[in-house]
Sequence to fold (252 residues):
Amino acid sequence: MTDRSIPADGIGMHLYTMREALADDYPGTLRRLAEIGYRTVGVSGRFGHSAAEIRSYADAAGLRIVLEHVGYQRLTDDWEGALADVHTLGGRWIVVPSLPVELRTPDGFREAAAAFNQAGEAARAAGLKLLFHNHGHDFAEVDGQVLFDILLAEVEPDLLGFELDLYWVVDGGKNPVDYFQQYPGRFPALHVKDMAADGSFEDVGMGRLDFPAIFDRADRGGVEQWLVEHDAPVDPWASARTSYRSLAQLRF
Fold:
């Protein structure tokens, strides 16, 4: 390891963490995140605001929106509109956050891979990139095949990248570094989420995940954005401050 650090403009917040605050005051929440030091955000939920309004709030706060989470059903339900909204937000990536339960089989993942190839073509034509966000169950092994790996094998790299959620990779029994090594360049964004000793969610830097070792190989994975996430923070603002400080001070 060397004395490298995360670029300042690479440290972001995935806004699911801040959902209660956003529901009360979307523009004010973005301003406070910028004051903490965050430079970018990933959108997850509009809370009654339009894409144009959210973009205006982010611009006013000096934050850059890099992506939005869009449900799998949008692949066939106005995908062009979803792409247009990400353009309005100023994002680079459109992210499918999970697959429906009924698709969590090898055949289901192959069906999703075919859908992602098609949707990824449309995203590329629109100047965007389709990403998939993982959960722990995506790493289940069925008949010797890891479900997640089906997407890596069956979708063209230029049509599908991944927003790798580090907590859920480890929860699924895998090592993020192995994916960076085996599939270079396919992981432009991370969800940086820590794991407590009992396996629950923890603020970044306060848990047991070895982030320096993971980030030491992030360049090979193609990582450009480190987006903080905590699924169930007791105090979202305290979590946001602690997690930002941990990433800003981290060396690897």
The chain has one domain: 8-249. The domain at 8-249 is CATH 3.20.20.150 (TIM Barrel).
